Amino acid sequence: MGFNSVPALDPQKADVAHRTGVMVMDLLRRGVCPKDILTRQAFENAMISVMASGGSTNSVLHLLALAREAGVPLAIDDFDAISARIPSWPT
Questions:
Q1: CB 68 within 8 A of CB 61
Q2: Residue in 84, 81, 54, 78 with CA at minimum distance from that of residue 64
Q3: Single pTM value for the model
C-alpha cells in the first residue's frame, strides 16, 4: 500500500520494488492466486479510488483488461454506475 506514490526516479523506488517483491512472494507461499483477490468488489474499490482521486482515464482500460483476464464481469457502463456514487466537490 502506498507504493505507487513513490516517483519513478526517487531513490526509495528500489526499496519499494524490493518490498513489493517480498509481498508477492509471501502471497505465493500462502497459495494466494491473482483470481483470489481480483474480485468484483476489488475492481469496484479500484474504480472508486481512481474516480475519487481524479486518476487517469488509462485506468479504465487497465481495469477492464485485468477484469477480463481474471474472469470478472466488468463493462464500461459499470464505471458510469460507480461514478454516480462518488460525491462531487461543490462548485
A1: no
A2: 78
A3: 0.74
Distances (CA, A) of 31 to 18, 28, 71: 20, 5, 19
- Each of the 91 residues of the chain gets a pLDDT tens digit; together they read 566 778 888 899 999 999 999 999 999 999 998 889 999 999 999 999 888 888 788 999 999 999 999 999 999 999 999 988 887 777 6
Count of C-beta atoms within a 10 Å radius of residue 41 = 8
